[in-house]
Amino acid sequence: MTARVSIVVPAFNNAEHIEATMRSIIAQSFTDLEIIVADHGSTDATVARLQQFLADPRVTLLQTEAGGGAARNWNRVTDAATAPLLKLVCGDDLLYPDIVARQVAAFDDGVVLVASGRDIVDARAKPVFRNRGINGLAGRRRGGFAVRRTVRDGLNSFGEPACVMIRRSVLQSVGGWAHDEQYLIDEATYVKVLFEGDFVGIPVALAAFRLSAEQWSVRLGRDQASQATAFHRALLARRPDVVSRSDVRIGNLRARVNAVSRRAVYALLGQRMTGVTE
Predict the structure, then answer these.
(1) In DSSP terms, which residues pair with 87 in a beta bridge?
(2) Contact indicator for 191, 238 with CB cutoff of 8 Å
(3) Which among 65, 68, 104 has a CA at the least distance from the CA of 86?
(4) Pick from 203, 41, 195: which is nearest to 132 by CA?
(5) What is the distance between the alpha carbons of residues 11 and 18, in angstroms, rounded to a whole number?
(6) In a structure prediction context, what are the per-residue pLDDT tens digits for the chain, which is 278 residues long?
């Protein structure tokens, strides 16, 4: 019998945090799950630390050959899923116990994507920012409205994949996770999905996204802003019925401001992102 929800975990050199991630998945109050992990050629102890979880019959461990970037492993593990609803959880993030139950309950006819707020935490899972995300998108919204909102915000208003649940058939129909958006693989995919149906936002933190120094580096912040502005312009060209020139102008300005803010946060919180103490 097919499970109701597939939780898929693309793992890569996550030895420090993968056990906490897996425990947070297995501890879900909603238990009708299949849990698929694909390791992308890790060179640390990630695979060894995953072995203990294979005792749970819901857990499957796959191997993905090295290369191809994140999109390769995200699509590899997603392609192995069989449930109608899908949640991707990166190998260092955390789910709170009721996220799956609450997101499953939010799906209805025409809904293709559900997202919740999340806490942003440091290397030790201590909150840095609480209940971030959704940004005025609580409740059921038209997909196009949600897309326009994320463009105007100049950031990913839906959050990282751990905050999101997607109707798998729709994700498949739009070609899976975006291959050509290195820093926007999640947001670009959500946008494709939301052009196919409605969105539901749950304005409560139901997951935790773990910061790292690499994710918030100066160069990465600059590159992310550059890719975001190009993505907004491409959306305007493709769907001017949804995104206006004003939306893009405002969103691009905010994307650049967000990049500066990330650099400031990195300067203040760099030690908490690495978990290193003096």
Answers:
(1) 7
(2) no
(3) 104
(4) 203
(5) 8
(6) 789 999 999 999 999 999 999 999 999 999 999 999 999 999 999 999 999 999 999 999 999 988 888 999 999 999 999 999 999 999 999 999 999 999 999 999 999 999 999 999 988 889 988 999 888 899 999 999 999 999 999 999 999 999 999 999 999 999 999 988 778 999 999 999 999 999 999 999 999 999 875 554 445 556 788 999 999 999 999 999 999 999 999 999 999 998 877 666 666 666 555 554 43
Is residue 92 within 8 Å of residue 210, measured between CB atoms? Answer: yes
Instruction: Supply 25's token pair.
Output: 């998945």
CB-based burial label for 256 (10 Å; 0-12, 13-18, 19+) = middle
Parallel/antiparallel/unpaired status of strands 85-88 and 5-11: parallel
Say which amino acid occupies 94. L
